[in-house]
Design goal:
Elements (H helix, E strand, L loop, with lengths): L8 E3 L3 E4 L7 E4 L5 E6 L5 E5 L10 E2 L10 E4 L5 E6 L5 E5 L11 E4 L7 E4 L5 E6 L5 E7 L2 E5 L3 E4 L7 E4 L5 E7 L3 E6 L13 E5 L6 E4 L5 E6 L5 E5 L11 E4 L2 E9 L5 E7 L4 E5 L12 E4 L11 E2 L5 E6 L7 E8 L1
Antiparallel strand pairs: 1-30, 2-30, 3-4, 4-5, 5-6, 7-8, 8-9, 9-10, 11-12, 12-13, 13-14, 13-15, 16-17, 17-18, 18-19, 20-21, 21-22, 22-23, 24-25, 25-26, 26-27, 28-29, 29-30
Length: about 350
Amino acid sequence: MPVSTAPGTKWGNWTNLEGGIFAEPSAALNSDNRVQAFVQGGANALWTIWETRDRGWSPWKKIEGSRIEGVPHALRGRDGKIRVFYRTPDNHLEVVTQTAVNAHFGAPQRIVTNIGGDPAAALNGDGRIQVFFRGTDGALWYTRNQGLAYEAYTAPTSLGGGIYATPSPVLDGSGRIVVAVKGGNDTLYTIQQKASNAADAWDAFQQQTTGVTTRPSAVLDAASRVQIFYRGSDGSAWRVGQSDDYDAWQASASLKGQIIERPTACLGQDGRVNVLVKGTDKKLWVTVQAAENAAVYEAFQTLEGVIGDIHVSPVIMNRVGLLYVFTQGSGTARNLWLQRQNWA
């Protein structure tokens, strides 16, 4: 059976981008529609590789002055510049920012000292960046832009709770950031802003389900409702979906399959969410919504490949609707590999 994908596209061949990577990659889309990937490379430096205008790939480039331990988070701001947030080996939060739109990166900026986990960022409705992380006390913390000054960040603020993995924030269709976290006893919790752009006003944590064995992945469907994916205690992929009012949540439902680590997902150009996972055979697998905004997903189908020890990156879509996913290959080389959609 052909792999299900958006009409007019197909998943291509695997591409070896070489390099040596030691944690899950992150990627962002430049303002000129070129995808750029970021990884923890050799000597704990942050390295990057980017798509060229002919859809080839640049040589690897080290971001000078960077020291990273863990998974980076890349995000393009409202000003068109990519920023990469990461945890240093001595557990501080730093960011590097493009010196101009589509350009390379300046020196690292330290924005929080003494954090307890890797960061994840989202944009507020007005474009302010809000960065979430696990504190050294195990609670959910954040820092954010001071007003619309994108290079200035507030002192860290605690949202409380107790989290056991990197948080997953996303801006929903009501203009409020929702953060999905794994809590104690393998529970899934969400916390949501009280109103659009209410960066410092939050509702209480809500428990959504149990049996959550990985960090959750939060994405939007075609209606801009949050869809949260995770690995369940039965080894399958599961989802919890936001209701039409952007306040309530649906019951958790299984997508089946047998997977290693968390699913990653992205809305495709035809309005259906694509969910990609590392199977127990270490191949990449994909399932797609049966229809736009549907609660039902098709059966998993393989995209082949042999994935290494680290997790699959979040899926990213370019401006013409083609999906990209990065991962570590097998073997001692630890190379970065790419699977992406092409035009059929």
